[in-house]
Design brief:
Pfam families: LIDHydrolase. With 233 residues, this protein is α/β, with parallel strands linked by helices. The chain folds into two domains: 115 residues, 3-Layer(aba) Sandwich (Rossmann fold), CATH 3.40.50.1820; 71 residues, no CATH class. The chain is 54% helix and 9% strand. It contains eleven helices and four strands. A four-stranded parallel β-sheet has the order 1-2-3-4, covered by helices on one side. Strand 1, helix 3 and strand 2 form a beta-alpha-beta unit. The two termini are 33 Å apart.
């Protein structure tokens, strides 16, 4: 996150850059300043990224977005979801205790010990890199992640049906069958409210956190969708 703010000069001008609203404004600023205006866009969002995509459509209607793919979309009732009920008190009320624990335990911990611990975790979850996790467990990153998470729990409550209705032809939703962040009830509700929409339910039992083990499966699936529909969109 610290590197993210350094890459784009306009990031320093965004208020509350590490909050949910600031992150959305940052994405819009990037698209407006770094992407040529004649380049058509296909936006892909995962989890809260799906909420951000909808907000981009709402607040930057001039962007030439031709389609979006919203994967395991946490666009409503986050705090009411099974995982949200657990995460909300931790992120909103107990995160300050987590900050203290992090500073006391991780800050003085030598990098070689951190690397060893991360390697153990990565072997368990079958990942091949430790660079990202080494950055994430820094106190600064953990504090900002918890801060952003707390805002997500408080902000993402009611589904914005106005945005969905306005841009329905550009939206493809992909819900999980065992997703504790957006249960199948959320899928059933949006499917009922927008029966003409492209709203799909995963048939492969891929988890919400697909990036750990199923990133290639999702990438192949999205690539197929884009190839099959590019002429239409």
């Amino acid at each position: 996150m610290e590197q993210q703010a350094a890459f784009y000069p306009n990031a320093q001008e965004i208020k509350d850059i590490y909050g949910l609203r600031g992150q959305i404004e940052h994405k819009i600023a990037f698209l407006r300043s770094q992407v040529p205006k004649d380049v058509k866009l296909i936006l892909i969002g995962h989890s809260v990224g799906s909420y951000m995509v909808l907000q981009i459509l709402k607040h930057a209607p001039e962007l030439p977005v031709i389609h979006t793919f919203l994967l395991f979309p946490t666009i409503e009732r986050m705090a009411e979801s099974p995982t949200g009920r657990i995460a909300t008190p931790l992120l909103c009320w107990f995160r300050y205790a987590l900050y203290v624990t992090d500073y006391l335990l991780l800050t003085p911990c030598p990098d070689i010990v951190k690397s060893w611990l991360i390697n153990i975790v990565l072997r368990v979850i079958n990942l091949k890199t430790e660079l990202t996790l080494m950055n994430v467990i820094q106190p600064f990153c953990l504090a900002n992640a918890a801060y952003l998470g707390a805002q997500e729990m408080m902000t993402i409550v009611k589904r914005d049906d106005d945005i969905i209705k306005e841009h329905l032809s550009k939206l493809t939703f992909y819900y999980g069958t065992s997703d504790s962040w957006c249960p199948t009830k959320y899928y059933e509700d949006i499917k009922k409210d927008f029966p003409e929409g492209d709203i799909r339910l995963c048939e492969k039992n891929i988890p919400h956190a697909f990036v750990f083990r199923f990133s290639q499966d999702i990438a192949d699936m999205i690539a197929t969708w884009v190839k099959d529909n590019l002429s239409k969109i």
